[in-house]
Amino acid sequence: MTELGSMLPAPCTSDMAYPCNTTSINVVSLSLACSGLALLMAIFLTKKLRSYERGTPEMNKLCDKIKSGARAFLVTEYKYLTMFVFLVFAVLVIIYTLDPPSNLLSLADNPDRLDGIRAGGCFIGGALLSASAGWAGMSVATDANVRTTQAADKQGLSVALRVAFTGGAVMGFTVVGLGLAGLSFFFWLMTLNRSVGDLGGSEHAAARSLIAAVDSLASFGFGASSIALFARVAGGIYTKAADVGADLVGKVEMDIPEDDPRNPAVIADNVGDNVGDVAGMGADLFESFVGSIIAAATLANGNAVKVALPFWIAGAGIVASLFGFFAVSTKDGANQRQLMFALHKGVISSSVLVLAFSAVIVSQFFPGDQSAEGWKIFACIAIGLIAGILIGQATEYYTSYSFWPTQSITQAGVTGPATVIIQGLGIG
Question: Radius of gyration (Cα) for the chain, nearest Å?
Fold first, then answer.
Protein backbone atom coordinates (compact mmCIF):
# COMPACT_ATOMS: atom_id res chain seq x y z
CA MET A 1 0.00 0.00 0.00
CA THR A 2 2.78 2.42 0.92
CA GLU A 3 4.60 1.67 -2.34
CA LEU A 4 1.56 2.50 -4.47
CA GLY A 5 0.83 5.61 -2.43
CA SER A 6 4.35 6.89 -3.13
CA MET A 7 3.70 6.53 -6.88
CA LEU A 8 0.62 8.77 -6.78
CA PRO A 9 0.96 12.53 -7.39
CA ALA A 10 1.32 14.89 -4.47
CA PRO A 11 -2.15 15.54 -3.07
CA CYS A 12 -3.84 18.94 -3.27
CA THR A 13 -4.51 20.77 -0.05
CA SER A 14 -7.24 23.27 0.69
CA ASP A 15 -4.90 26.24 0.31
CA MET A 16 -3.72 25.23 -3.18
CA ALA A 17 -5.16 27.17 -6.11
CA TYR A 18 -6.56 26.03 -9.45
CA PRO A 19 -5.68 23.92 -11.40
CA CYS A 20 -4.34 21.65 -8.64
CA ASN A 21 -7.68 21.47 -6.85
CA THR A 22 -9.74 21.05 -10.02
CA THR A 23 -12.74 18.70 -10.23
CA SER A 24 -13.52 16.07 -12.87
CA ILE A 25 -16.07 18.32 -14.58
CA ASN A 26 -13.47 21.10 -14.80
CA VAL A 27 -11.07 18.65 -16.40
CA VAL A 28 -13.42 18.23 -19.36
CA SER A 29 -15.18 21.61 -19.32
CA LEU A 30 -13.31 23.13 -22.27
CA SER A 31 -13.36 19.89 -24.25
CA LEU A 32 -17.15 19.58 -23.85
CA ALA A 33 -17.66 23.18 -24.97
CA CYS A 34 -15.33 22.83 -27.97
CA SER A 35 -16.83 19.49 -29.03
CA GLY A 36 -20.25 21.16 -29.06
CA LEU A 37 -18.76 23.93 -31.19
CA ALA A 38 -17.39 21.31 -33.62
CA LEU A 39 -20.78 19.63 -33.96
CA LEU A 40 -22.48 22.99 -34.54
CA MET A 41 -19.89 23.75 -37.21
CA ALA A 42 -20.59 20.38 -38.85
CA ILE A 43 -24.32 21.16 -38.94
CA PHE A 44 -23.64 24.63 -40.39
CA LEU A 45 -21.35 23.24 -43.10
CA THR A 46 -23.86 20.53 -43.97
CA LYS A 47 -26.53 23.15 -44.59
CA LYS A 48 -24.06 25.23 -46.57
CA LEU A 49 -23.09 22.21 -48.68
CA ARG A 50 -26.72 21.47 -49.52
CA SER A 51 -27.16 25.03 -50.81
CA TYR A 52 -24.91 24.25 -53.78
CA GLU A 53 -26.47 22.94 -56.97
CA ARG A 54 -26.51 19.16 -57.35
CA GLY A 55 -26.12 18.95 -61.12
CA THR A 56 -27.77 17.39 -64.14
CA PRO A 57 -30.39 14.62 -63.88
CA GLU A 58 -27.86 12.07 -65.15
CA MET A 59 -25.30 13.13 -62.54
CA ASN A 60 -27.92 12.98 -59.79
CA LYS A 61 -29.01 9.52 -60.94
CA LEU A 62 -25.47 8.19 -60.65
CA CYS A 63 -24.99 9.92 -57.29
CA ASP A 64 -28.19 8.39 -55.91
CA LYS A 65 -27.13 4.91 -57.03
CA ILE A 66 -23.76 5.25 -55.33
CA LYS A 67 -25.33 6.68 -52.18
CA SER A 68 -27.95 3.94 -51.91
CA GLY A 69 -25.31 1.27 -52.51
CA ALA A 70 -23.03 2.71 -49.83
CA ARG A 71 -25.88 2.86 -47.33
CA ALA A 72 -26.91 -0.71 -48.10
CA PHE A 73 -23.35 -1.90 -47.54
CA LEU A 74 -22.98 -0.07 -44.23
CA VAL A 75 -26.38 -1.23 -42.96
CA THR A 76 -25.40 -4.84 -43.65
CA GLU A 77 -21.94 -4.38 -42.16
CA TYR A 78 -23.27 -2.70 -39.03
CA LYS A 79 -25.81 -5.51 -38.50
CA TYR A 80 -23.00 -8.03 -38.19
CA LEU A 81 -20.90 -5.62 -36.13
CA THR A 82 -23.79 -5.16 -33.71
CA MET A 83 -23.66 -8.85 -32.82
CA PHE A 84 -19.90 -8.64 -32.31
CA VAL A 85 -20.18 -5.51 -30.16
CA PHE A 86 -22.79 -7.02 -27.83
CA LEU A 87 -20.77 -10.22 -27.54
CA VAL A 88 -17.66 -8.30 -26.46
CA PHE A 89 -19.83 -6.15 -24.18
CA ALA A 90 -21.01 -9.26 -22.36
CA VAL A 91 -17.45 -10.60 -22.04
CA LEU A 92 -16.16 -7.29 -20.63
CA VAL A 93 -18.99 -7.07 -18.12
CA ILE A 94 -18.40 -10.61 -16.88
CA ILE A 95 -14.60 -10.35 -16.67
CA TYR A 96 -14.45 -6.95 -14.99
CA THR A 97 -17.28 -7.75 -12.60
CA LEU A 98 -15.52 -10.88 -11.38
CA ASP A 99 -12.08 -9.26 -11.28
CA PRO A 100 -12.45 -5.45 -11.12
CA PRO A 101 -9.33 -3.53 -12.31
CA SER A 102 -9.86 -1.00 -9.51
CA ASN A 103 -8.93 -3.77 -7.04
CA LEU A 104 -5.39 -2.37 -7.27
CA LEU A 105 -6.70 0.92 -5.93
CA SER A 106 -9.14 -0.45 -3.32
CA LEU A 107 -9.17 -2.49 -0.18
CA ALA A 108 -8.84 -6.17 -0.99
CA ASP A 109 -12.11 -7.01 0.75
CA ASN A 110 -14.08 -4.24 -0.96
CA PRO A 111 -13.78 -4.59 -4.77
CA ASP A 112 -15.88 -2.31 -6.97
CA ARG A 113 -18.16 -4.71 -8.87
CA LEU A 114 -19.50 -1.88 -11.03
CA ASP A 115 -16.28 -1.92 -13.05
CA GLY A 116 -17.82 -4.46 -15.40
CA ILE A 117 -20.76 -2.21 -16.23
CA ARG A 118 -18.41 0.77 -16.62
CA ALA A 119 -16.10 -1.07 -19.02
CA GLY A 120 -19.00 -2.46 -21.05
CA GLY A 121 -20.74 0.92 -21.20
CA CYS A 122 -17.57 2.65 -22.40
CA PHE A 123 -17.06 -0.04 -25.03
CA ILE A 124 -20.61 0.39 -26.35
CA GLY A 125 -20.20 4.18 -26.36
CA GLY A 126 -16.92 4.07 -28.29
CA ALA A 127 -18.28 1.62 -30.85
CA LEU A 128 -21.52 3.55 -31.37
CA LEU A 129 -19.84 6.92 -31.81
CA SER A 130 -17.17 5.48 -34.10
CA ALA A 131 -19.83 3.92 -36.33
CA SER A 132 -21.79 7.19 -36.28
CA ALA A 133 -18.72 9.14 -37.40
CA GLY A 134 -18.22 6.77 -40.33
CA TRP A 135 -21.88 6.93 -41.33
CA ALA A 136 -21.93 10.74 -41.20
CA GLY A 137 -18.78 10.99 -43.29
CA MET A 138 -20.14 8.62 -45.94
CA SER A 139 -23.48 10.44 -46.16
CA VAL A 140 -21.86 13.83 -46.64
CA ALA A 141 -19.22 12.56 -49.09
CA THR A 142 -21.79 11.17 -51.52
CA ASP A 143 -23.63 14.51 -51.45
CA ALA A 144 -20.43 16.52 -51.85
CA ASN A 145 -19.16 14.52 -54.85
CA VAL A 146 -21.89 15.51 -57.28
CA ARG A 147 -21.96 19.11 -56.06
CA THR A 148 -18.19 19.39 -56.50
CA THR A 149 -18.47 18.12 -60.06
CA GLN A 150 -21.22 20.60 -60.85
CA ALA A 151 -19.28 23.49 -59.27
CA ALA A 152 -16.13 22.64 -61.23
CA ASP A 153 -18.13 22.52 -64.47
CA LYS A 154 -20.18 25.69 -63.99
CA GLN A 155 -18.39 27.92 -61.46
CA GLY A 156 -14.70 27.15 -61.68
CA LEU A 157 -11.96 25.53 -59.68
CA SER A 158 -12.06 27.90 -56.71
CA VAL A 159 -15.71 27.18 -55.94
CA ALA A 160 -15.21 23.46 -56.57
CA LEU A 161 -12.37 23.38 -54.02
CA ARG A 162 -14.56 25.16 -51.48
CA VAL A 163 -17.41 22.65 -52.02
CA ALA A 164 -15.09 19.64 -51.79
CA PHE A 165 -13.30 21.00 -48.74
CA THR A 166 -16.62 21.76 -47.07
CA GLY A 167 -17.69 18.15 -47.53
CA GLY A 168 -14.46 16.88 -46.03
CA ALA A 169 -14.63 19.38 -43.18
CA VAL A 170 -18.07 18.10 -42.19
CA MET A 171 -16.63 14.66 -41.53
CA GLY A 172 -13.59 16.15 -39.80
CA PHE A 173 -15.61 18.25 -37.38
CA THR A 174 -18.05 15.39 -36.84
CA VAL A 175 -15.24 12.99 -35.95
CA VAL A 176 -13.55 15.31 -33.44
CA GLY A 177 -16.89 16.59 -32.11
CA LEU A 178 -18.30 13.15 -31.42
CA GLY A 179 -14.95 11.82 -30.21
CA LEU A 180 -14.21 14.61 -27.75
CA ALA A 181 -17.82 14.88 -26.55
CA GLY A 182 -18.11 11.13 -25.97
CA LEU A 183 -14.72 10.86 -24.33
CA SER A 184 -15.34 13.86 -22.05
CA PHE A 185 -18.79 12.66 -21.03
CA PHE A 186 -17.68 9.11 -20.28
CA PHE A 187 -14.65 10.37 -18.36
CA TRP A 188 -16.87 12.49 -16.13
CA LEU A 189 -19.33 9.59 -15.78
CA MET A 190 -16.54 7.20 -14.79
CA THR A 191 -15.49 9.44 -11.89
CA LEU A 192 -18.94 9.25 -10.24
CA ASN A 193 -19.59 6.92 -7.29
CA ARG A 194 -16.11 5.45 -7.30
CA SER A 195 -15.23 3.05 -4.50
CA VAL A 196 -11.45 3.42 -4.30
CA GLY A 197 -10.89 2.61 -0.65
CA ASP A 198 -8.09 4.20 1.36
CA LEU A 199 -5.04 2.73 -0.37
CA GLY A 200 -2.27 5.33 -0.28
CA GLY A 201 -4.19 7.49 2.21
CA SER A 202 -7.43 9.38 2.01
CA GLU A 203 -5.59 12.43 0.69
CA HIS A 204 -4.98 10.53 -2.55
CA ALA A 205 -8.66 9.68 -3.14
CA ALA A 206 -9.03 12.17 -6.02
CA ALA A 207 -5.95 10.81 -7.80
CA ARG A 208 -7.12 7.22 -7.40
CA SER A 209 -10.53 8.16 -8.77
CA LEU A 210 -8.94 9.75 -11.86
CA ILE A 211 -6.72 6.71 -12.44
CA ALA A 212 -9.71 4.37 -12.24
CA ALA A 213 -11.77 6.61 -14.56
CA VAL A 214 -9.04 6.76 -17.22
CA ASP A 215 -8.60 2.99 -16.90
CA SER A 216 -12.26 2.53 -17.81
CA LEU A 217 -11.81 4.81 -20.82
CA ALA A 218 -9.51 2.19 -22.34
CA SER A 219 -12.69 0.25 -23.17
CA PHE A 220 -14.01 3.32 -25.00
CA GLY A 221 -10.93 3.26 -27.22
CA PHE A 222 -11.30 -0.50 -27.65
CA GLY A 223 -14.85 -0.06 -28.93
CA ALA A 224 -13.76 2.63 -31.38
CA SER A 225 -10.87 0.46 -32.58
CA SER A 226 -13.16 -2.52 -33.17
CA ILE A 227 -15.41 -0.56 -35.51
CA ALA A 228 -12.45 1.05 -37.27
CA LEU A 229 -10.84 -2.33 -37.90
CA PHE A 230 -13.89 -3.92 -39.47
CA ALA A 231 -14.88 -0.78 -41.39
CA ARG A 232 -11.45 -0.38 -42.95
CA VAL A 233 -10.88 -4.05 -43.70
CA ALA A 234 -14.37 -4.89 -44.96
CA GLY A 235 -14.66 -1.67 -46.96
CA GLY A 236 -11.15 -2.09 -48.35
CA ILE A 237 -11.79 -5.65 -49.51
CA TYR A 238 -15.04 -4.62 -51.13
CA THR A 239 -13.64 -1.59 -52.97
CA LYS A 240 -10.59 -3.48 -54.22
CA ALA A 241 -12.68 -6.40 -55.45
CA ALA A 242 -15.03 -4.01 -57.26
CA ASP A 243 -12.11 -2.05 -58.71
CA VAL A 244 -10.39 -5.13 -60.09
CA GLY A 245 -13.71 -6.47 -61.37
CA ALA A 246 -14.46 -3.20 -63.15
CA ASP A 247 -11.06 -3.24 -64.83
CA LEU A 248 -11.15 -6.90 -65.84
CA VAL A 249 -14.69 -6.96 -67.19
CA GLY A 250 -14.96 -3.41 -68.44
CA LYS A 251 -11.59 -2.55 -69.92
CA VAL A 252 -10.20 -5.99 -70.74
CA GLU A 253 -13.24 -7.97 -71.87
CA MET A 254 -15.69 -5.32 -73.08
CA ASP A 255 -13.26 -2.53 -74.06
CA ILE A 256 -15.20 0.01 -71.96
CA PRO A 257 -13.18 3.09 -70.89
CA GLU A 258 -12.05 3.62 -67.31
CA ASP A 259 -14.83 4.71 -64.91
CA ASP A 260 -17.52 4.51 -67.58
CA PRO A 261 -21.00 4.43 -65.93
CA ARG A 262 -22.15 1.78 -68.43
CA ASN A 263 -20.06 -0.69 -66.45
CA PRO A 264 -22.01 -1.69 -63.30
CA ALA A 265 -18.76 -2.57 -61.55
CA VAL A 266 -17.75 1.09 -61.73
CA ILE A 267 -20.76 1.98 -59.57
CA ALA A 268 -19.72 -0.78 -57.16
CA ASP A 269 -16.17 0.59 -57.18
CA ASN A 270 -17.41 4.04 -56.21
CA VAL A 271 -19.60 2.51 -53.50
CA GLY A 272 -16.50 0.79 -52.17
CA ASP A 273 -14.56 4.06 -52.19
CA ASN A 274 -17.24 5.64 -50.00
CA VAL A 275 -17.57 2.80 -47.51
CA GLY A 276 -13.84 2.01 -47.32
CA ASP A 277 -12.00 5.26 -47.91
CA VAL A 278 -14.61 7.57 -46.34
CA ALA A 279 -16.67 5.67 -43.75
CA GLY A 280 -13.74 3.44 -42.82
CA MET A 281 -11.38 6.40 -42.64
CA GLY A 282 -13.86 8.30 -40.47
CA ALA A 283 -13.99 5.44 -37.97
CA ASP A 284 -10.20 5.08 -38.18
CA LEU A 285 -9.60 8.78 -37.48
CA PHE A 286 -12.08 8.64 -34.60
CA GLU A 287 -10.18 5.76 -33.03
CA SER A 288 -6.79 7.46 -33.47
CA PHE A 289 -8.09 10.74 -32.05
CA VAL A 290 -9.65 9.33 -28.89
CA GLY A 291 -6.82 6.82 -28.47
CA SER A 292 -4.18 9.56 -28.31
CA ILE A 293 -6.15 11.44 -25.62
CA ILE A 294 -6.69 8.28 -23.55
CA ALA A 295 -2.98 7.40 -23.79
CA ALA A 296 -1.88 10.86 -22.65
CA ALA A 297 -4.40 10.86 -19.78
CA THR A 298 -3.20 7.41 -18.70
CA LEU A 299 0.40 8.64 -18.47
CA ALA A 300 -0.79 11.39 -16.09
CA ASN A 301 -1.16 8.73 -13.35
CA GLY A 302 -3.94 10.55 -11.55
CA ASN A 303 -2.44 14.05 -11.71
CA ALA A 304 -5.51 16.21 -12.34
CA VAL A 305 -3.58 18.86 -14.25
CA LYS A 306 -1.91 16.38 -16.58
CA VAL A 307 -5.17 14.47 -17.09
CA ALA A 308 -6.89 17.70 -18.11
CA LEU A 309 -4.09 18.76 -20.47
CA PRO A 310 -4.88 16.45 -23.44
CA PHE A 311 -8.58 17.26 -23.19
CA TRP A 312 -7.90 20.99 -23.25
CA ILE A 313 -5.30 20.75 -26.04
CA ALA A 314 -7.79 18.76 -28.15
CA GLY A 315 -10.44 21.39 -27.50
CA ALA A 316 -8.03 24.17 -28.49
CA GLY A 317 -7.25 22.20 -31.65
CA ILE A 318 -10.90 22.33 -32.65
CA VAL A 319 -10.92 26.12 -32.27
CA ALA A 320 -7.72 26.35 -34.34
CA SER A 321 -9.30 24.16 -37.03
CA LEU A 322 -12.23 26.55 -37.31
CA PHE A 323 -9.84 29.33 -38.29
CA GLY A 324 -7.87 26.99 -40.55
CA PHE A 325 -11.01 26.04 -42.46
CA PHE A 326 -11.57 29.63 -43.59
CA ALA A 327 -7.92 29.99 -44.63
CA VAL A 328 -8.31 27.48 -47.48
CA SER A 329 -8.90 29.10 -50.88
CA THR A 330 -7.43 29.22 -54.38
CA LYS A 331 -7.93 30.90 -57.72
CA ASP A 332 -9.49 29.58 -60.92
CA GLY A 333 -7.08 27.83 -63.24
CA ALA A 334 -4.82 26.70 -60.41
CA ASN A 335 -2.56 23.71 -60.99
CA GLN A 336 -2.12 20.78 -58.64
CA ARG A 337 0.72 22.41 -56.73
CA GLN A 338 -1.36 25.54 -56.13
CA LEU A 339 -4.30 23.41 -55.00
CA MET A 340 -2.12 21.62 -52.48
CA PHE A 341 -0.73 24.95 -51.28
CA ALA A 342 -4.30 26.10 -50.65
CA LEU A 343 -4.80 23.11 -48.35
CA HIS A 344 -1.44 23.73 -46.71
CA LYS A 345 -2.53 27.22 -45.73
CA GLY A 346 -5.25 25.67 -43.59
CA VAL A 347 -2.87 23.16 -42.03
CA ILE A 348 -0.12 25.68 -41.28
CA SER A 349 -2.46 28.33 -39.87
CA SER A 350 -4.18 25.76 -37.66
CA SER A 351 -0.85 24.38 -36.47
CA VAL A 352 0.46 27.83 -35.51
CA LEU A 353 -2.73 28.53 -33.58
CA VAL A 354 -2.55 25.16 -31.79
CA LEU A 355 0.99 25.95 -30.66
CA ALA A 356 -0.12 29.36 -29.41
CA PHE A 357 -3.14 27.94 -27.57
CA SER A 358 -1.00 25.15 -26.11
CA ALA A 359 1.52 27.68 -24.79
CA VAL A 360 -1.25 29.60 -23.05
CA ILE A 361 -2.75 26.45 -21.53
CA VAL A 362 0.63 25.17 -20.34
CA SER A 363 1.48 28.53 -18.77
CA GLN A 364 -1.76 28.44 -16.79
CA PHE A 365 -1.59 24.76 -15.86
CA PHE A 366 2.04 24.78 -14.67
CA PRO A 367 2.66 28.00 -12.73
CA GLY A 368 5.61 28.88 -10.54
CA ASP A 369 7.96 26.03 -9.71
CA GLN A 370 6.13 23.69 -12.11
CA SER A 371 6.76 25.86 -15.18
CA ALA A 372 9.93 23.97 -16.17
CA GLU A 373 8.00 20.69 -16.41
CA GLY A 374 5.19 22.44 -18.26
CA TRP A 375 7.48 23.83 -20.95
CA LYS A 376 9.05 20.40 -21.40
CA ILE A 377 5.57 19.06 -22.12
CA PHE A 378 4.99 21.96 -24.51
CA ALA A 379 8.23 21.06 -26.30
CA CYS A 380 6.91 17.51 -26.78
CA ILE A 381 3.67 18.94 -28.24
CA ALA A 382 5.66 21.13 -30.64
CA ILE A 383 7.96 18.27 -31.70
CA GLY A 384 5.00 15.97 -32.41
CA LEU A 385 3.17 18.65 -34.37
CA ILE A 386 6.20 19.58 -36.48
CA ALA A 387 7.05 15.92 -37.11
CA GLY A 388 3.49 15.29 -38.33
CA ILE A 389 3.65 18.23 -40.73
CA LEU A 390 7.06 17.14 -42.07
CA ILE A 391 5.82 13.58 -42.64
CA GLY A 392 2.86 14.96 -44.58
CA GLN A 393 5.12 17.20 -46.68
CA ALA A 394 7.50 14.34 -47.44
CA THR A 395 4.64 12.06 -48.42
CA GLU A 396 3.22 14.68 -50.76
CA TYR A 397 6.61 15.28 -52.37
CA TYR A 398 7.09 11.61 -53.18
CA THR A 399 3.51 10.89 -54.30
CA SER A 400 2.30 14.09 -56.00
CA TYR A 401 2.65 14.38 -59.79
CA SER A 402 3.72 18.00 -59.32
CA PHE A 403 7.16 16.88 -58.16
CA TRP A 404 10.05 14.96 -59.66
CA PRO A 405 9.75 11.53 -57.93
CA THR A 406 6.35 10.70 -59.43
CA GLN A 407 7.26 12.32 -62.76
CA SER A 408 10.34 10.09 -62.93
CA ILE A 409 8.11 7.00 -62.80
CA THR A 410 6.22 8.30 -65.83
CA GLN A 411 9.47 8.97 -67.66
CA ALA A 412 10.66 5.44 -66.88
CA GLY A 413 7.66 4.12 -68.82
CA VAL A 414 9.33 5.16 -72.08
CA THR A 415 11.60 2.12 -71.90
CA GLY A 416 8.94 -0.38 -70.86
CA PRO A 417 7.10 -1.83 -67.84
CA ALA A 418 10.24 -3.28 -66.23
CA THR A 419 11.80 0.15 -65.66
CA VAL A 420 8.47 1.46 -64.36
CA ILE A 421 8.44 -1.27 -61.71
CA ILE A 422 12.05 -0.66 -60.75
CA GLN A 423 11.64 3.10 -60.53
CA GLY A 424 8.35 2.78 -58.68
CA LEU A 425 9.85 0.44 -56.08
CA GLY A 426 12.82 2.76 -55.72
CA ILE A 427 10.68 5.84 -55.11
CA GLY A 428 8.34 3.91 -52.77
Answer: 25
Distance CA(70)–CA(282), nearest Å, equals: 14
Q: Do 30 and 184 form a contact (C-beta atoms < 8 A)?
A: no
Report the distance separating Cα 213 and Cα 186, nearest Å: 9
- Indicate the pTM of the whole model: 0.85
Using CA atoms, how far apart are residues 86 and 84, in angstroms rounded to an integer? 6
Compute the distance between CA of residue 103 and CA of residue 67 in angstroms, rounded to an integer: 49
The span from the CA of 65 to the CA of 20, in Å, is 56
For the residues of 286-300, what is the DSSP string, one character each?
A: HHHHHHHHHHHHHHT
Q: Tell me the helix, strand and coil percentages in the chain, rounded to 5.
A: 80, 0, 20
Q: Do 108 and 195 touch, CB atoms closer than 8 A? A: no
- Along the 428 residues of the chain, how does pLDDT read in single tens digits? 444 444 555 545 444 445 555 677 778 888 999 999 999 999 999 999 988 888 888 888 888 888 888 888 889 889 999 999 999 999 999 988 887 776 665 544 566 778 889 999 999 999 999 999 888 888 888 888 889 888 888 887 788 888 888 988 998 999 999 999 999 999 998 888 765 544 444 446 677 778 888 888 999 999 999 898 888 888 778 777 777 777 777 777 777 776 777 777 778 788 888 887 788 888 888 999 999 999 999 998 888 888 999 999 999 999 999 999 988 877 777 777 777 788 888 889 999 999 999 999 999 888 888 888 889 999 999 999 999 999 988 888 888 877 888 888 888 888 888 888 888 888 87
Q: Which residues, 6 or more positions from 428, have their beta carbon under 8 angstroms from its beta carbon?
A: 398
**Is the backbone peptide bond immediately before 310 cis, with ω within 30 degrees of 0?**
no
